[in-house]
Amino acid sequence: MDATAALNEIAFWLERDRATTFKVQAFRKAADIIAGLSPDELAARRGDGRLKRTKGIGDRTFEVIAQAVDGGIPDYLAGLRERGAEPLVEGGRELLASLRGDLHLHSNWSDGGSPIEAMVDAAGMLGREYVALTDHSPTLKIANGLSPERLSEQLDLIARIEAARTKAGRTEAGRPRPRLLAGIEVDILEDGTLDQAPELLDRLDVVVASVHSKLRSDSRTMTRRMLGGIEDPHTRVLGHCTGRLLNGSRGTRPPSEFDAKQVFAACAEHGVAVEINARPERQDPPDELIQVALDAGCLFSIDSDAHAPGQLDFLQYGAERAARNGVPPERIITTWPLDRLLEWSGRGQ
Predict the structure, then answer these.
(1) What's the predicted TM-score (pTM) here?
(2) Torsion angle (degrees, nearest 10) of CA 68, 73, 74, 76
(3) CB-side exposure of 84: number of CA atoms within 13 Å?
């Protein structure tokens, strides 16, 4: 087995299991260290001891590389694969199988941990047909939000990645490569406007609009702010609408307060999908708000909000919640074929 691929796959499974960032990065760093070495050079360095002495190669990563160089599947990877064969959550499997895409994920251009291509490759491994890259907008400086200049550069890179996909049609691992859509997770600012130049938003396939600041504002203020974002014609998805956190490294945070009936009525009126954010620490919106959105006639988007390749499999959590709350698959835009999705988003060709 290719040693670099083995190390990266181990990182994927660890991310899926919500392992610590330090543990995951040990394997990704080791993969980067050996990525440029030929199989013969890697075997030579393993044999003469240089690999063992290389900074950034620890006991576990050395063991993985050595077993891969010897032609086998590393024991550590085999164990993770066996554990990964079990679902993350019971329920929602039929709906999960019908999901074609994921409209909310981040790369190392903002606060994600991996290059765009690694995210696309992982999405292909999971069978996604399309994914939208939605890095953050400028105001969210803590997340390295993209200035207009950086977003423009990213759009050029996406075009090159798509050109390569069209030519090859496969990931480096030989799997079908998903269509990479240009998107953004744009902040809804305090005055209800969107945090990016309109002429750049015009160029995107998908705009996810979210509130990230002053989440403890009073209900009237938050409702007015959210309605402004929803009414902007660029907005296609309302991201993690309450901003709550149930657990995880960032601690807990209560849901923001807003007039849910008014907000979801506006989503239905303007054709904005309500995101069912699949991150286990978010589970946003809460079940009771999913019911309000259902009654309002809203569309939904089940999204991973992945910040690393392994987190793309968090869609399992979102599918389980949607199924448990009786969300009809036909009202979930991420079950739609790509041409229908792009027609809905205003980007149909």
Answers:
(1) 0.94
(2) 150
(3) 21
The β-bridge partners of 277 are 284, 303
Q: Closest by alpha carbon to 208, among 327, 321, 101, 125? A: 101
- Alpha carbon separation from 75 to 7, 45, 85 (Å, rounded): 12, 21, 16
Q: Among 88, 79, 128, which Cα is nearest to 104's?
A: 128
286 cis-preceded (ω within 30 degrees of 0): no
d(CA 162, CA 14): 28
Tracing tokens 């032609």 back to the chain, one arrives at 71
Residues 243-301 pLDDT 10s: 999 998 889 999 999 999 999 999 999 999 999 999 999 999 999 999 999 999 999 99
CB 347 within 8 A of CB 208: no
The per-residue pLDDT for range 177-186, each reduced to its tens digit, is 899 999 999 9
Distance, CA of 198 to CA of 194 (rounded, Å): 8
Q: How far apart are CA 105 and CA 115, in angstroms?
A: 12
Q: How many CB atoms lie within 10 A of CB 280?
A: 17
At 206 the three-state DSSP class reads strand
Give residue 249's pLDDT.
Answer: 84
**Which CATH class, in words, describes the domain spanning 93-345?**
alpha beta
- Dump pLDDT digits (tens) for 139-165: 999 999 999 999 999 999 999 999 988
Outline which parts of the chain fall under CATH 3.20.20.140: 93-345
Q: How many CB atoms lie within 10 A of CB 18?
A: 17
Residues in the chain: 349
For residue 76, the one-letter residue type is: Y
The span from the CA of 293 to the CA of 299, in Å, is: 8
The CATH number fitting domain 3-84, selected from 2.20.200, 3.30.310, 2.30.110, 1.10.150: 1.10.150
Structure confidence at residue 87 (pLDDT): 96
As given in the structure block, the two tokens for residue 148 are 């207009």
